[in-house]
């Protein structure tokens, strides 16, 4: 279960913190955390520099494993709208997955769909109507109508618009994972009371050591730790072997190689994690596990630094 994964990580953090406290008490090392400048202009300039440097860090990491980056998609002016829709869909997936499935089944021909919501909760009915309305406003649905009580039915016409089809086919999931990752890094930073250097590449096209092409959904780094996430909305079985091989090429353990699946419960995700060299998570588990993993990595890094300082001091005495 997801709670078990979190508890294991938190236990490791607690043990590491105890060891750090011992080292600090013995060597009287004072570790100070300095905040970034708050001046808005300076902050913008510094962020730009950090982003550029961090991109180089990811590139260097891939080069160390004989992997070359071919292309990285450019940001689009419509990303803000896509991100907002993706976040809404991901956070309310349980109530929206039936609508999404109907759209995906019928969008190739631009067919009509109907969805009965007689057995939906009031919240899910509201979310479906809100989501469908927003899709219609940006032409991701060509037509949309909601029939109130007693029907509780929506009728809509899908579109063959490539941008819409890309969104429904999986772009929404990749964006949701990215947004969740950003949130997790921010929350981990707040809980640690520490600035974290963070950067990412979304959907980079790469060339593997054997010359094969490959696309990573998301690779990111937080301070000195690297993480790779793949997201799937179906047919994950055929990809597990390939992803397990990829995690070995990247030399990332199961905590730093993550597969996010939309339609899986925590009991199944635990079973898959135990079988393969990746952590398998549901949408609802991702943020909690990322926060715990990032915190554990930062504590471990601090422990290494403290131990190095202790050894240096001992060598002088």
Describe the structure.
With 317 residues, the chain is α+β, with helices and mostly antiparallel strands. Helix content is 58%, strand content 17%. It folds into 2 domains: 215 residues, Trna Endonuclease, Chain: A, domain 1; 83 residues. A 5-stranded mixed β-sheet has the order 5-8-9-10-11, sandwiched between helices. Strands 1-6-7 form a 3-stranded antiparallel β-sheet, with helices on one face. The relative contact order is 0.14.
List the helices and strands and how they pair.
Blueprint: H1 2-27, H2 40-64, E1 68-71, H3 79-91, H4 93-106, E2 112-116, H5 122-137, E3 141-147, E4 153-158, H6 162-192, E5 198-202, E6 205-207, E7 213-215, E8 218-222, E9 225-232, H7 237-250, E10 257-261, H8 266-275, E11 279-282, H9 283-316
Parallel strand pairs: 9-10, 10-11
Antiparallel strand pairs: 1-6, 2-4, 3-4, 5-8, 6-7, 8-9
Helix pairs in contact: 1-9, 3-4, 3-6, 6-9
The strand order across the widest sheet is 5-8-9-10-11
Dominant shape: globular
- Indicate the mean pLDDT: 84
Portion of residues in helices? 55-70%
Strand content: 15-25%
What is the CATH class designation of the largest domain?
Alpha Beta
CATH architecture of the largest domain: 3-Layer(aba) Sandwich
Uncertain ranges: 20-53
CATH fold category name of the largest domain: Trna Endonuclease, Chain: A, domain 1
- Total separate domains: 2
Largest sheet, if any? 5 strands, mixed
Quaternary arrangement of the chains shown? Answer: single chain
> Helices and strands, in N-to-C order?
HHEHHEHEEHEEEEEHEHEH
Count of β-strands: 11
């Amino acid at each position: 279960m997801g709670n078990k994964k979190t508890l294991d990580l938190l236990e490791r953090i607690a043990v590491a913190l105890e060891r750090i406290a011992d080292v600090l008490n013995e060597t009287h090392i004072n570790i100070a955390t300095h905040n970034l400048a708050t001046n808005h202009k300076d902050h913008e300039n510094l962020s730009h520099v950090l982003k550029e440097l961090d991109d180089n860090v990811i590139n260097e990491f891939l080069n160390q494993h004989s992997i070359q980056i071919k292309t990285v998609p450019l940001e689009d002016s419509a990303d803000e709208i896509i991100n907002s829709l993706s976040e809404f869909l991901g956070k309310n997936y349980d109530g929206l997955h039936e609508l999404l499935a109907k759209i995906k089944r019928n969008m190739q021909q631009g067919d009509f769909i109907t969805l009965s919501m007689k057995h939906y909760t009031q919240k899910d009915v509201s979310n479906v109507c809100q989501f469908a309305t927003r899709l219609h406003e940006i032409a991701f649905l060509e037509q949309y109508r909601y029939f109130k009580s007693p029907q509780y039915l929506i009728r809509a016409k899908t579109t063959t618009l490539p941008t819409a089809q890309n969104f429904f086919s999986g772009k929404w999931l990749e964006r949701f994972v990215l947004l969740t990752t950003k949130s997790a890094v921010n929350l981990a930073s707040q809980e640690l009371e520490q600035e974290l250097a963070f950067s990412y590449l979304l959907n980079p096209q790469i060339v593997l050591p054997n010359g094969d092409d490959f696309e990573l959904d998301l690779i990111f780094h937080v301070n000195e730790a690297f993480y790779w996430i793949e997201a799937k909305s179906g047919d994950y079985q055929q990809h597990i072997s390939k992803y397990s091989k990829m995690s070995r090429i990247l030399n990332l353990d199961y905590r730093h190689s993550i597969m996010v699946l939309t339609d899986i419960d925590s009991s199944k995700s635990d079973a898959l994690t135990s079988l393969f060299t990746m952590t398998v998570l549901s949408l609802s588990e991702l943020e909690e596990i990322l926060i715990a993993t990032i915190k554990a990595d930062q504590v471990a890094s601090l422990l290494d630094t403290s131990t190095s300082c202790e050894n240096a001091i001992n060598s002088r005495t």
